[in-house]
Specification:
19% of the residues are buried. This protein has a 5-stranded mixed beta sheet with strand order 2-8-7-4-5, with no helix packed on it. A 3-stranded mixed beta sheet has the order 1-3-6, with no helix packed on it. Strand 4 and strand 5 form a beta hairpin. It is globular and about 40 Å long. It starts with a strand and ends with a strand. The protein is 0% helix and 55% strand. The chain is mainly beta.
Amino acid sequence: LNILSFALARGLVRGGDGPKRLLVPARTGSVRLQLDVKPPQNSTSYRASLQNLDGAELWSENVRGTESTVSLTLPGGLLSRGDYLVELKTNSGREPQRVGEYYFSVVR
């Protein structure tokens, strides 16, 4: 199985070409995303959620990370051409806190 890796920063980059464009071939087994967490959090337990831009949740999972980065692995078949958002929240304490939103586009 092929695994592609990409690093994403929070939010939309202003003055750029919009969301980061990820080239994901059709037969890719998995896509690993490394999310940059700034400012560093006190938590290392997170809940990641992949959504399309209509707000439909396509995938979610509890993930572990460090105080400054979180890596998650998505099934390659889940990502067709289009725009996506990964929402990352802390997964500790009573109230989950939003850590960041990460936007990207998949191209073929």
